[in-house]
Amino acid sequence: MHSLLLNEVARGEEAESFYNRLMDLETALNGKTVRGDPYRHSDIVLGKFKRYFNVHVEERTISLTRRKNAISQAVNRFGKIILIASKRMEWDEMLSIYKEREGIERQYRCLKTELEA
Fold this sequence. Notes:
By secondary structure, the chain is an alpha+beta fold. The chain contains four helices and four strands; from the N terminus they run E-H-H-E-E-H-E-H. The strands form two sheets. A two-stranded antiparallel sheet has the order 1-4. Strands 2-3 form a two-stranded antiparallel ribbon. The longest helix has 26 residues, at 91-116.
């Protein structure tokens, strides 16, 4: 059995982090003039975020434009979790087990942070 869960809090956090990263990359590359191959340089800096930008080069100066469709597709997936159970169970039971697990992971992260401090 499987179900789809939408977590609005996670959706917001993921979107904020994603858009911040896009802005950081734009700041790092837009208007930058490089000595070597500007396309190679942009590939290295953008990494897996390359699919969200069109890269234009004029006289070794890099210019980025956002690929709106690619960004929209990514944002539409944020906050969605697929829950898969190895046995048949009701949605309420599956959600309850997931929330218990989520709570335990949160407590573990807090404990781990305290121990590292």
